[in-house]
Amino acid sequence: MTAAAPAYKRILLKLSGEALMGDDPYGINRETLWRIVSEVRTVTDLGVEAGVVIGGGNIFRGMAGASAGMDRATADYMGMLATVMNAMALADAMRQAGMNARVQSALSIEQVVEPYIRGKAIRYLEEGKVVIFGGGTGNPFFTTDTAAALRGSEIGAEIVLKATRVDGVYSADPRKEPTATRYARISFDEAIGRGLGVMDATAFALCRDQKLPINVFSIFKTGALKRVVMGEDEGTLVHC
């Protein structure tokens, strides 16, 4: 019997910096990092091309710095540097696991990582390498959600997979409302109409305009990433 083929050939995975913390209060939890790498490997082993955008909230969050009195642009640049640190840690773990990974940064730090070059990123993906995009969009006042929508559109990803701590989008906060129900599928317009915070408004609008679907799922649920890629009922699919 022929094995089922993945539903997507090229994906953009959005990981929050907080996902790397595990149960730690900050920083990178090595066990959690290795488990995330293992989850990504399950889909690259299927021949799926994977780009990753990673946040920096486990090290520094620009909004938090701004709220504490720091200049917002300065705080955002510090947050972008944190994402590069996370990207390097993720790439290193992938290489140790026998995967081929490259880091590209929207900020120019050529002594440390490559600059973001769209054509080179696409070539790496076609060669089977995982491309990890650090530095956000390279501009202050934009979130890494927006970076994920932007890079996903640029590299021709078929879907943006937003990895969170919750296994989908719910009618209410499931941690506060036990009767909250998970949406298996919902349109962009329905999500807006119901005030569901899937991604920040800029990122959400870009995905909708580019007809780039989003799946929100839990990265802490073993096998969830592979099930999403295989087109199974996992997480919440936001579609046009």
How far from one another are the termini? 34 Å
Cα Rg: 17 Å
| CATH topology grouping | Carbamate kinase
By CATH, the architecture is named: 3-Layer(aba) Sandwich
* Unreliable residue runs: none
CATH superfamily: Acetylglutamate kinase-like
Main sheet strand line-up: 4-3-5-2-1-6-10-11-9
The overall strand count is 11
What structural class is derived from the secondary structure elements? Answer: alpha/beta
Structural domains: how many: 1
CATH class: Alpha Beta
User: Residue-averaged pLDDT, rounded?
Assistant: 93
Strand content: 15-25%
Element pattern in H and E: EHEHHEEHEHEEEEHHEHE
SS field, number of helical segments: 8
Outline: globular
Plain-language structure description:
The protein is of the alpha/beta class and 240 residues long. It has a single domain, classed as 3-Layer(aba) Sandwich (Carbamate kinase). The chain has helices at 30-44, 62-67, 72-96, 118-126, 144-154, 188-193, 201-209, 224-229, and strands at 10-15, 49-54, 101-105, 114-115, 130-134, 159-164, 169-170, 182-183, 185-187, 214-218, 236-239. The strands form two sheets. Strands 4-3-5-2-1-6-10-11-9 form a nine-stranded mixed beta sheet, with helices on both faces. The chain has a two-stranded antiparallel ribbon with strand order 7-8. β1 (10-15), α1 (30-44) and β2 form a beta-alpha-beta unit. The longest helix is centred in the middle third of the chain and has 25 residues, at 72-96. The protein is globular and about 50 Å long. The model has no long low-confidence stretch (mean pLDDT 93).
